[in-house]
Amino acid sequence: MVSIQIWVTRFHRSPQLSPGAAEPEEMRASTDIERKPPGSSTMVTTPDYEEMSWELSVQIDQKSGDEAMKFKLRVKGDLHIGGLMLKLVEKIKAPQDWSDHALWWEQRKCWLLKTHWTLDKYGIQADADLRYTPQHKPLLVQLPNMKTILLTVSFSSVVFKTVADICRILNLRRSEELSLLKPPDDASNKKKKKDKNAREDIWDIDLLSGTSGAAAECLPNLPPAELAKIYQPLSLVDKANNFSGWLDSSRSLMEQDVQDEDKLLLRFKYHVFFDLNPKYDAVRITQLYEQARWNILLEEIDCTEEEMLMFASLQYHICKLTLSNEPLDHSKEPEIDEVEAALSNLEEDITDIPELADTLRLFRPKRLTLRPYKEYWFVFKDTTISYFKNKEASYGEPIEQFHLRGCEVVPDVNVTDKKFGIKLLLPVADGMNEIYIRCNNETQYAKWKAACILASKGKTMAYSSYKSEVRNIQSFLQMKSLAPPPGQATPDLDTMEMNAECFVSPRYAKKHKTKQLTTRILEAHQNIANLSLMEAKMRFIQAWQSLPEFGIKYYIVRFKGSKKDEILGISYNRMFRIDMSTGLPVTTWRFANIKQWNVNWEIRQVAIEFDQNVSIAFCCLSCDCKVVHEFIGGYIFLSTRSKDQNETLDEELKVIFEKQWIYLDNAVGHFYRTTFEIGSGGTLLLKTPKEMESSTAAKEAGADNRNIVDDGKSQKLTRDDIEMLKEQGLKGQEIIQQLIDNSSTFKDKTEYAQDKYIKKKKKKYENTVMILKPSCRILAMMYHGREPGKICHLRHDTLAQMLTLANIHAGSKVLVFETCSGLVLGAVMERMGGTLNTKTKDPSIDSEKSVLTAKDVQQNKADVEQQGSPEEQSREASSVANTSDDQEKEDREKRKEAKAQERKAKLEEKRKKMAAAAALLDGRNADGLVIAGRFHPCPVLLGLLKFLAPSRPFVVYSQHKEPLIECYTKLKEVGGTVSLRLTDTWLRHYQVMPNRTHPLLLMSGGGGYLLSGTTVAVDHSKPAGSLRAEEPAPKRLKLTNTEG
């Protein structure tokens, strides 16, 4: 059944208007209906129609692959797109489903998806070449594991939504991290013949079941000969050309010249992998591992020989576990508990903050110099590193001190050569300063690097995560060690059944013999032989992330004022300028220091402004500037994601729903609008589409219901029989079928009555739950249906009108006064889309004092100081305690003092927030005002209107119209507002079904009343009554004798 909602708005006249007074022009304009005399309509003749119309050529693409057809239609400019599509379908006269077809304008490269727009509005004329083509077409997508799949995607949706649909099919979470990339031109031109033969290796999603499970399995490594054919040494320019093919996420595939069955690469575009959980991200972790593996094998990212052998040993271990016959059950993988991780990060022992002090070596790189490391005495305290000439000098002033908050920690390690270095990139105004610190052994390196990592996040070594960070670094060093653990026998080369050369890049395979390579891989494998498959993949990804060049994308640009081409590198948190001739970075800029960036689309130039008046501008040469623009904005947006407590769902939590307890553990990981059936014990069972189809369709139906008598004897099953069926474990559909079979009047009912009966019984006996994404509309409907008093009987359509009348939009500064359980404030925040600039009024404060001024803030501060110090109160309370229990008394005093200090800190924090709110209000430049509450709105409205800028809207909601009539009268007297309107709305639902369309009998009696208007600037030098005195008096009409 389709439900239509109709809103009708009634305008109320001002109570000041007398019965004989003229109605205001604004009210007359909204209520008058234009009427034409019966003979005033004009008819267009055939010659006139031909002069105003033209022939439009449209090509129709068949969905089944048949030959395209061309039609010419005579159209007019006022014909809307929907009417043109209807004409096409009527002219084709082909019995097929045309619902997926849409019009494509070839010359403009755009879809005509707004069916209510006319041809004139789109600018379509007789020379336009239109195609009536399907929106969903087949596309070849190469996954990160180099496997190509064939699936049907939307060519009319933006790429961001298309990627989200592909990830939904593959069961890939966090689709915002991926995008589509056009393959390099060289590969597509050289291997056309190969692609035709490779069609057999393509997975067809429509024919293949369980695609997500297949995508979660690793593919075997290629033989060395095939790997050598793919491998090509890449320079910085080659890498820049490879990364230039990212598609624009805000445009559709066809708008970027992608045709059906073209091949695109699905890759992780943004290298910030948020919330990797082995329990839910089996496919995501596998595809991440595959992308990292191919990056290593094809040397798209540089690594040392030691790191290459470490990656090879991990690949061998993963291949060995994948080829084993044991079935993989990813649901048994250990889940990462976000709450425990967050709590562990918050745990800090502030009484004892550890310090590190030891002899280390320091190097500060300079141009045209070697790397002489010098020994100093280093002290790590809080989040700073200080170094002195020696230990005895550590009691004085340090030679230099480094503040590590916001820095980057890069490892500089070679376990084989016993080289344990830490590279620190310290942020400064014009880039980053490099500092190299060399440790003496593994233990010292693990402690200092863990301290640097925590300090870069603003944390000290007192956090409980410091010890776990040290252990992780030590295990990572052990994994990088190529020597076998002590006590282990020399590995047997015959145990390795796979070719060792397929685990390293072709360049490294040429440097070593196969036997030597096998020995070194097996020795390194002994350090990781006990890892599970998922742990090995996670270790591989972590090692990939630790590489210096991880996640860097290169682009050829030309900076403003420069005459030569340069390389711009973009990472997840910084961008840097690279000299193309030497390949060395010249300047580094951090995203955290960006104040704003702009794009001049006419000259295709990107301009970025940083802190401390540092600005750059450049033009992109190897790609469109939109690619760089998306990378900067994408990384900044993705950095705002956090493991908030609101995003964490307790899977073991019992939820009461419709008087029944249910568990949400089986719902985690599924998409919204998924339907579940409540099983025994409150467990949720996923319902497949086949199960959701009605199996109780009636075969026989009567002509009408006139002979059916509702005497209560038509149903043979009693209540006890139904309860017995439930105890036997019958599902809801089976119980409904039993009720139909045992009903003596069901077959005599009409088809409509049978459907109504089945729907009623399904609601009673089928325990199904659909999980919806929460929104203010759903919350408003829920509150209005169950507890309307909590939201002052505010209906969802009235709430929508309030947001529209107040002109709520992103970036606006809105004043909100509401006592509707936060519903109005939540709706305003949802409409603003995250750009929050909202000030709310606490309803617990008296409505007469609705505005907090700076004077009130100072008074509150004085009141807090006059209350006396909390320390004195705690001493008075503790003096009564037993003197024999001194230790217990001291502990009690400490707890009381801590509570008092905490209470004082909270009061101070609240005072600062109130002062900040008062400072914002003093600007008197708010963009809107929304009032909805149970208080009388008149004093609140008059108190807050003065903080609105001129020409700004306001809206007041009340359940009753009398308070709003008083506000209307008061605003007319005071002045400063125009376009005052007092309206109410009523809502009625319509049932829309074949041969049964009618309004529902029950409807909402009223949705409250709204008073809206706009503020204007008032000249306060003139008295309020002078405005009315200056109005010209109405002219007297002279009576004339009309009789002849």
TrEMBL record:
Residues 856-884 have a biased composition (Polar residues). GO terms for biological process: cell-matrix adhesion; integrin-mediated signaling pathway; tRNA methylation. InterPro entries: Band_41_domain, FERM_2, FERM_central, Kindlin/fermitin, Kindlin_2_N, PH-like_dom_sf, PH_domain, PH_Kindlin/fermitin. CDD domains: FERM_B-lobe, FERM_C_fermitin, FERM_F0_KIND1, PH_fermitin. Gene3D superfamilies: Phosphatidylinositol 3-kinase Catalytic Subunit, Chain A, domain 1, Pleckstrin-homology domain (PH domain)/Phosphotyrosine-binding domain (PTB). Residues 25-37, 889-909 have a biased composition (Basic and acidic residues). One of its GO terms (molecular function) is integrin binding. It comes from the Eukaryota. Residues 361-457 form the PH domain. Keywords: Cell adhesion. Residues 15-42, 856-909, 1023-1044 are annotated as: Disordered. GO terms for cellular component: focal adhesion; tRNA (m1A) methyltransferase complex. Belongs to the kindlin family. This is Fermitin family-like protein 1. It comes from Takifugu flavidus (sansaifugu). The lineage of its organism: Eukaryota, Metazoa, Chordata, Craniata, Vertebrata.
